[in-house]
Design a protein that fits this description.
3 domains; globular; alpha/beta; Aspartate Aminotransferase, domain 2; Aspartate Aminotransferase, domain 1; binds pyridoxal-5'-phosphate; seven-stranded mixed β-sheet; 37% helix
Length: 424
């Protein structure tokens, strides 16, 4: 027997392979080299044939410069925080690629002078919500509300109902956010009930605004009462409404989810919201409302610290002006359509299709059940599917793995089928 180490190629020799030289150009030499060293260690242990090294290195390398993996969202949760919330529309994907190089994000090409940053994205947002006198975009929903608190209410008070002291997720709490920007909270009402008179009594010269927060991830039922924005608008201070989900107009399937247009028409002075929930766009925070407030926020030094990247502006404009987003498409899909797709997949896999009830997710509409359908598989497949070449994330329910199709675009059914076949 010859010593297997004799046959171990040199690192530089492997790196000189044209396919690896190409990968090094894309991913950087250091990353490719460390993958080569790792695979050569396998050869030394006689766990890999020397001639298979290049293929093994290519398999081990990420497809691009990011180690983030695209996954198929078969959870039945449309806006899934752990999966990056909203998926971009094809138009938004194109826009991001276009804007990646030097762009005219802050240059007026006609005059050669500096232009308003993201003018087209802001114009698209303004056009989508004519009820807003002015609009601005910041890093996320928390930044939008934080900016409002920090600029309008620093060293002053914000009145909020106790039932709207919301924790969004991962320990992020709206009241703590508002306080961290230098505003003091004045809580009114009880956990389940608040009346107009509670607000009225709490408003004095120290109060900068009344804050209305949409409980976007829970529902209080029973003996409850809240005061709508339309009533709060009669108070002598502005109403700031954190609507959460980024809906710009009412959505027929989500009648209880507040939208920016209705909230402004009801009299809110300022609406804050997220861009990557039901709007279906990039992570960003929308500020819409009265010109005097929006302009004050936009010109404040803090706004610079919360400003968005050109890629976000590009994706937001395309989300607003391009074709339907995957989020909108998911919300427009009916149970019978999904059951037909699930049945076709189930038949191809020798599995069962089942009707399910899916959810909007952390993005809003708590308690709303969307009729959907899934392919039911053995629970043991959950892990291999997550670890596959195309990771699939489903949900385990009553001992079965459900691959829910609500958040899976129909054009991904073939990839889903291939991913399951690869595991069975
Ligand atoms: C999601 C949400 C936020 C936070 O928005 P981010 O974009 O995650 O920062 C704030 N308020 C409400 C009501 C929300 O639903």
């Amino acid at each position: 027997m010859s010593d297997p180490r004799r046959a171990v190629p040199r690192t530089d020799t492997v790196l000189a392979d044209p396919r690896l030289a190409e990968a090094a150009g894309r991913l950087g030499r250091a990353q490719v080299k460390s993958a080569v060293v790792e695979q050569l260690a396998q050869v030394r242990r006689a766990a890999l044939a020397p001639e298979a090294v290049v293929d093994a290195v290519l398999d081990a390398l990420p497809a691009g410069g990011t180690s983030l993996r695209p996954v198929i969202n078969a959870t039945g949760v449309v806006v899934h925080t752990n999966l990056g919330r909203a998926a971009y529309s094809p138009a938004a994907v194109d826009a991001v690629v276009t804007a990646a190089g030097p762009t005219d994000v802050e240059l007026d090409l006609a005059t050669g002078r500096r232009g308003r940053r993201g003018a087209a994205a802001l114009a698209a947002l303004a056009a989508a919500v004519p009820a807003a006198e002015a609009v601005h975009v910041v890093n996320n929903g928390a930044a939008a509300l934080g900016l409002a608190a920090g600029v309008l209410a620093r060293g002053r008070r914000v009145v909020i109902a106790r039932g709207e002291l919301v924790e969004i997720g991962d320990g992020f709490r709206i009241p703590e956010l508002v306080e961290s920007f230098g505003a003091e909270l004045r809580e009114v009402g009880t956990t389940n009930r608040v009346r107009f008179e509670d607000y009225e009594r709490a408003v004095d010269d120290s109060v900068a605004f009344v804050l209305k927060v949409h409980p976007s991830n829970f529902r209080v039922e029973g003996f409850t009462s809240a005061v709508p924005v339309s009533a709060l608008a009669a108070l002598p201070v502005p109403v700031v409404a954190d609507t959460g989900s980024g809906l710009l107009q009412p959505h027929p399937r989500l009648p209880d989810e507040p939208d920016a247009t209705t909230t402004l028409l009801e009299g809110a002075a300022l609406v804050t919201s997220s861009g990557d929930k039901l709007l279906g766009g990039p992570q960003c925070g929308l500020l819409l409302g009265r010109r005097e407030h929006v302009e004050r926020l936009r010109r404040h030094p803090m706004a610079r610290a919360l400003r968005v990247d050109k890629l976000t502006l590009a994706a937001l404009e395309a989300t607003l002006t391009g074709g339907p987003t995957p989020t909108a498409q998911a919300l427009a899909t009916t149970g019978p359509e999904l059951l037909a797709r699930a049945s076709a997949l189930a038949e191809a896999l020798g599995a069962e299709a089942v009707p399910t009830s899916a959810r909007v997710g952390g993005g809003g509409a708590p308690g709303v059940e969307l009729s959907s359908a899934a392919v039911a598989l053995p629970e043991g497949l959950a892990e291999p599917l997550r670890l596959g070449a195309v990771p699939v994330v489903g949900r385990v329910h009553e001992g079965r793995l459900l691959l829910d199709l609500l958040a899976v675009p129909p054009e991904d059914d073939a990839r889903l089928l291939a991913a399951v076949r690869a595991c069975t």
